[in-house]
Amino acid sequence: MKTRRFTRTAAVASAALLGLGTVGAAATTADAAGVPSQTVPECTQAMLSASVTHIPGSDGAGHTAYQLRLQNVSTQNCRIAGYPGVSVVGHGDGTQIGRPADRLDPDGQPKVLIPNASSYARIVTVNIDKNGGPLGSDCQVVNADGWRIYPPNETKALYAPSPGLMACSSDVNWIQVTQMNTSR
Fold this sequence. Notes:
- 6% of the residues lie in helices and 33% in strands.
- The chain is mainly β.
- This is DUF4232 domain-containing protein.
């Protein structure tokens, strides 16, 4: 998947909302150099659960943000790195609505998730209302059921319900996602 370019205004607004930074990785294990062991298997869909929650106070500048949480629900350590695949689904049958999320920041380092540990990403969307929000008529608004989440490097998806979610069904860029990280 290629990284799509956004206007400078969208990039600045998104960066401001994200408050990007990295902090300690208390929920990880690593070798002495701090880099996860390549012998630890990658986290698969079967090893993870997904949830997406709105981040209170994140609405502003025409955008809103959500926290994606992938939790290791298996009994073994697993390695996670890169971007999740994120899209909005609806119509009661998992049909993708509109375009999938674009990648927002550069790739990071792999992290090892111990059982019950979590990795996080931020999803930033245009703040959609019944009239399309800042996208206006470029956004054909529909009600959505939730989020389809592909863990990094995985072809099997997880589902996270999101009652009341509105989405752009037209071919416009309206969702961005960061890479997975162990900090919130």
